Amino acid sequence: PAGLLGMDFTTHDGDPIVQTLSEPYFARSWWPCKDVPDDKAEVTLTCFVPTGMYVASNGQLLNVAWTPSGSYFVYQSTYPISTYLVSITATNYQGWDEPYVSPAGQEMTLEYRVFPEDVADAQVDFERTTEMLDLFSNTFGEYPFIREKFGMAEFVWEGAMEHQTMVSYGDFLITGDKFYERLVAHELSHHWWGNLMTLTDWDEIWLHEGFATYCEALWTEHLDGKQAYQDFMWDRSLNMVGFAGPIIPPYNLFGNTTYKKGAWLLHMLRGYLGDADFFQALRDYAGLSSSQYGNVTTEDFIESVEQTTGQELNWFLDQWLYVAGRPTYEYNWTSEPENGQHKVTLRIHQAQSHQLYSMPLDVRIQTASGPVDSEVFVTDSTHWVTYYLDEAPTSVTLDPDLWVLKWTQELADVTPAPFVAGETRLLPAHPNPFNPTTLLRFELGEAADVRLRIYDDRGRQVRVLEPGLLPVGPHRVPWNARDGRGAPLASGVYRVLLEAGAQWQAQSVTLIK
Ligand SMILES: [Zn+2]
Predict the structure, then answer these.
(1) How is residue 336 annotated by DSSP?
(2) Could you report the per-residue pLDDT of 421-472, keeping only the tens digit for each?
(3) How far is the CA of 50 from the centre of ligand 1 (A)?
(4) What's the rounded Cα separation, in Å, for the pair 328 and 511?
C-alpha cells in the first residue's frame, strides 16, 4: 500500500538501503513505463550497486557481475507483471534459500533476504512459509509463479508489500516470535489475489486486499480451528463503530472498508454457499484461463462464482459492495402456551435507514435440553416468524455463528442491573427511540476521562460529546440529535460509542422524527 511513493533511500542500523514501493501509481517516478495495472509485461531489470550491497528483485536472478567499482544484478520476470509490482531492494543483505516442492510435485526455491541484525528473528518468523504455500496451493491451485520463486526481502517500513515473487517485508514486523506471521500469509496469498488475478481499476482494490485479509483468516483457521477463525472475523467486524463508505469505490484505497469489509464479504459468501461450493468457486476463479496472469473486474469474479455454483449472486453481493453500512437487526420475541406446546413469536426489524438487506439469518432458540436451530430469510423491514416448541425457550440469538456483518439489538423492557463497583458500562439510552432529545446513560467503574462519539449508520462521525473527567458511578449526558455545528440530524439509527479511559462500548439509538 501507498507509503514510500516510489524509490526511497534510507538506512538500517547505520547501513544504507535502497527500496521501492510503487502501489498504486509511483512506478513512473523511478522507471519509464506505461503505469497502469492492466498493461502487464515481462520485465528484465539491471541494477548497478556499490560493492557490499545485494539486490533483491522480481523473478529469476540471471546474472551477477562483480567489478572493482560495484556489482551488476540482472533479474528477469518471465511471468507477466504489473508496473506497481516491480521492485528492487538493495542493502548488505544476509540471506538463506530453502528448497520447496509443491503438493503437485513442482520444485522451486524460497529466498529470504534480511538485515544481518535480524537473521535469527526472521528465521523464526518465516519458518512456516512452506506450510502456507501448501495450504494456499491446495485450496486455490498451484502457486502461480512456481517456475520462478517465492521470496521475502526485509525493508525499512511498518508494513509489507506483495511485490511479485519477492515480497517487501517491514523490519518493524520481524519480531522473532511470529507476532505478525499472518502478514506473511497475507502477502503470499496476494500471489493469487493481486499478482495472478490483477484488478483493472483501483476502485476495485477489494479484489486484492479483501481476499488477502480473508486469507489471513484461512491461515488462522488452518492453525487454530473454527473458533479462532470466527474470532478473527468478529474482531474485524467491530472496527470501533463501522466502515466508512462503500467497498466500491472506496473512500480510502487502503482503509478498513477495503480490507475488513472486503474480507467479510467473502466470509458471508462462504456462509451462504457452504464450504464445498465456496472453495470450488475460488479455485475456479483463480483458474480462469481468460484472466490468469491478466486482469479482472468484480463482475468477472461474480460471473465466475455464478458459473461454478449455478446461482445468481448479484443480489447478494451488490448490496454489500456498492452501499456503505451494514444492517441493524432489532428483534424481540414472546412465548405463550398453545395446545400443550410453546408458541414462540419472533419479530426481526431492520432499523437502518440506508437500504433494506436481503440476507439469510440463523436463529438459535435455547431450551433446557439444548438449542433449536433454524434459518430465516429476512428481506422486509419487519419479519415475523412463529415456532412451536415442546420446551419453553430461555433465549433467542440471531446469527449465533457470526456469518453476517451487522449490529443486533434485542429489544426488551430493560431494567438496568444495579451498579457494580469496578464495572464501566453503557446503559440503554432513554428514551429510545427518541425525538429530539435522549439521555445517554452509563456507569463508570473508575474515574475516567469520558467522550461519547456518535456515528450515523454509514460510519460517519456526526458529533462528539465531551463531559470530561467524571467520578465513579452513574452518569447521564443529554444529546439533542444535532451534529457538531448545531444542525438537526435526519431520522435514522445512530451508533453511540462510549470512551472511558482505555475502555469503550457501543450501542445504537434511533431518532424518529
Ligand atoms: Zn495486502
Answers:
(1) E
(2) 667 888 888 888 899 899 999 988 888 999 998 988 777 789 999 998 998 8
(3) 32
(4) 14
Name the class of domain 198-321.
mainly alpha
What is the Cα–Cα distance from 89 to 101, expressed in whole angstroms?
Answer: 26
Residue 414's pLDDT is what? 40
Q: What is the pLDDT of residues 387-400, one digit of tens each?
A: 999 999 999 999 99
* Ligand 1 centroid distance, CA of 106 (Å): 26
Centroid of ligand 1 to alpha carbon of 46 (angstroms): 27
Q: State the residue for C-alpha cell 477489494.
A: 206
Please list, in sequence order, all residues whose beta carbon lies within 8 angstroms of the beta carbon of residue 447, skipping any fewer than 6 positions away: 469, 470, 471, 472
Query: At the fourth CATH level, which superfamily is domain 328-410?
Result: Aminopeptidase N, middle-beta domain (2.60.40.1840)
Between the CA of 309 and the centroid of ligand 1 the distance, in Å, is: 27
**What's the CA-to-centroid distance between 187 and ligand 1, angstroms?**
6
Domain with CATH 3.30.2010.30 in the chain: 6-171
Instruction: Please state, in angstroms and rounded to a whole number, the distance separating the CA atoms of residues 35 and 353.
Output: 41
By C-alpha distance, which of 341, 452, 354 is closest to 392? 341
User: Which residues lie at CB < 5 A from ion ligand 1?
Assistant: 209, 212
Distance 283 CA to ligand 1 centre (A): 20
Q: What is the CATH number of domain 6-171?
A: 3.30.2010.30
Domain 425-511 has CATH 2.60.40.4070: yes
- Ligand 1 centroid to Cα of residue 173, in Å, is 14
Q: How far is the CA of 206 from the centre of ligand 1 (A)?
A: 9
